[in-house]
Specification:
single chain, 255 residues, Rossmann fold, 2 domains, 9 helices, 11 strands, globular
């Protein structure tokens, strides 16, 4: 009898121990699940308020990308055209385009995922052609060069930064027009593409000729973007974006 009571006590103790552990585990899981859902909701809200949906009624700015691209020249343009107006209204669609949707690796080692390919790229108002330190593969990429030619037929503006001028030269779309490239690259650009009117890059930072404009690249990519922004909007909006970007602080950083 005593043995039965002892066994019953052990069984009862084990039962309540298991029940207690189970309740605590369930409670912990519920708390964890609640915490995860809350985090997901926060992430979704944070993402949603920064999304700029594609609006077919807005002008579309296309940013060409490829492996080895200088990411600053892509970022500069998106930085300028991605800013809203004073009323916080979206003014442009800003999209990235590459040969495939595979992530591209920038010169700086970051990975960017393109929005569109050469085949499904929507109609563009402006095309920005950036550069890389080694443009050998790009100027020999017929798909890329042909894409630039085709988009030139529909765009109102084509902009090149730095060695992106080599792709413009390879496409032939700016023959007879002024163009500038990176500092020290003008002489070779003129030899390779004699139909271009290559400007002295030691003196010229930015040049505009008809629908074509170009810059030395890197931080001067902001100049080409801001210049086109003013043409497509107003001086007031360009000044607003400059203030948004603290451009004046960049000019005076040593003072």
């Amino acid at each position: 009898m005593r043995e039965s009571i002892k066994n019953f006590g052990i069984i009862t103790t084990l039962f309540f121990t298991i029940l207690l552990i189970g309740c605590n585990t369930k409670s912990s899981n519920q708390k964890l699940e609640t915490r995860d859902i809350s985090k997901a909701e926060v992430q979704t809200d944070t993402l949603t308020k920064h999304l700029k949906p594609f609006n077919p009624e807005l002008p579309t700015i296309g940013l060409l990308m490829f492996n080895g691209v200088l990411q600053g020249e892509v970022v500069a343009t998106s930085d300028v055209f991605g800013k809203p107006n004073r009323n916080m209204e979206q003014l442009f669609n800003v999209i990235t385009i590459a040969e495939t949707l595979n992530p591209i690796t920038t010169e700086e080692g970051m990975h960017f995922v393109p929005d569109h390919t050469f085949k499904d790229c929507p109609k563009l108002t402006a095309l920005f052609v950036p550069s890389g330190y080694d443009m050998y593969a790009q100027v020999r990429n017929e798909k890329m060069v042909d894409f630039i030619r085709r988009k030139n037929e529909e765009t109102k503006y084509v902009v090149s930064n730095c060695a992106g001028a080599q792709l413009i030269g390879a496409s032939g779309i700016a023959d007879g027009h002024k163009i500038v490239t990176y500092i020290g690259g003008g002489e070779q650009l003129q030899k390779d593409y004699p139909n271009l009117k290559v400007q002295n890059d030691s003196l010229v930072t930015f040049v505009e000729d008809g629908k074509f404009s170009s810059s030395n690249g890197n931080l001067t990519s902001y100049i080409s973007a801001l210049n086109l922004l003013e043409k497509m909007t107003s001086t007031e909006h360009r000044e607003f974006v400059e203030s948004y970007l603290y451009i004046d602080r960049l000019r005076n950083w040593k003072r």
